[in-house]
Amino acid sequence: MKAITSTQMRELDRIASAEFDIPGFELMRRAGQGIASTAEYLAEKARGGDTFFQLIAGRGNNGGDAFAAALFLHEDKYEVEVLLAGSASDVKGDALRHLSKMRAAGIPLIELPTKESWDDTLRDAGAGEIIIDGILGIGIKGPPRGPIAGAIHYINTIAEDNLIVSIDVPSGLDADTGEVPGEAVIADITATIGMPKIGLLTQNAIPYVGSLDVIGIGVPHELTSAYESSLHLISGWDVRRTIPKRARAAHKGNFGHVLIIGGAIGYAGAPAMSAQAALHSGVGLVTVLVPNSIYPIVAGSALELMTYPGECTETGSLSTKAWTLLEPRLPEFKAIVVGPGMTRHPDTADWVRNLLLKGNQPILLDADALNVLEGQVELLANSRCPVVITPHPGELARLLGCTVEEIQKNRSAAAIEAAKLTKAVVVLKGAGTLVAQDGSPLHVNMTGNPGMATGGTGDVLAGLIGGLLAQGLKPFDAACSGVFLHGRSGDSAMWRHSQATLTATDVINELSTTFREVTIR
To answer: pTM for the full model?
Structure first.
């Protein structure tokens, strides 16, 4: 989904109203309905549905969206309260109409027109609620002042005990640059309206945005398709279009066969988790090749796996002696994942070279399969098969011969350069995972959370993308869909449990639910 500027979004709203007869009041109503839906989803996931919503509204259109959302939440039988950063007499236009409807429904409105009034309210703030930030929208520049600054500080202070949803952009964040000239709301979820704003996808914005949902408001496709953008958000709508519909008479052979190669003594879990994630990707068959030192562990991790032992090196990793057994079988597999838990033994490098030079199916390189290619981008560029690589910043730094600091200073530039040099699809993992392909717009994933910074989640991602590749998805589409589904599953697991206790297995266990939320069947 294309990311656009705040000016472009305002122009879309104007044209939708003037030329397609969609009044601003109706666009605001649709925005409120979508915001309420996102908030209710969060309430169900994180609070079991029993939630008090406190909406913090500004005097402009962002506040109007909040007023509309409050009415929908009220109609759905939630307890709702609205705090206004200003006076009701200052609200105008469509926002005033929604405010009037909200008040007529009996929803409490508390006017807080000074910074001091917000400081006083802070002393009585509750806990266990969901706070909806509708203070500032996309048209505001410069640092917040007065009651606006007080409201933002109020939200950030009570965020320790409450969940935060921001409408369109976190208040105080520049929608075009992602910069924060003063204090800005730190959200758990940002429900952006219409289309993603380009500033929300920048490195500067990552600490404030949280997960990013897009609220559709019915802007005609012929309007949005006219815009070009070098930066795209990976959305659930995009993923839905890439997952193939299953024919009624289909059999397992129609959905591909993925091979996962990896593991060593002490690292049995890596290929096992990759394989379990692949099983949940929709792929027809999953085969795992591991050293015989860990074969019983991996074979017992899931009954659906076809697991084969290979000869070991002296350190317990997979020896290239097993290559002679695998090579005749290569045509059986529609995709190959290599690297999880494989160690940096010289034989691992031989495995990677053999697959790149002799395979003809898509190959995903992860973890140690990348580590053994330090400084050898030309081997990837000269591969005879399509390649996806899934490095974290340290692995990409080793591959490109630079420092982690250089990667992190400009992640977007690093991912684009890596895709150009390697001719591979590059998945640069981290907060705001990037998917780059030479000649294509950079895609940003905004699902996922800090709880996923734990051992094994990268192995899960590798197996999930591998399974999608085996089903025939184009490498770029498989990478984009995989990172979205992976992050969304991590979010779902986090809301059910917590960030602190999240494990890679929790992510695997949520994949089925995530697929059901994103796909039709």
So the answer is: 0.96
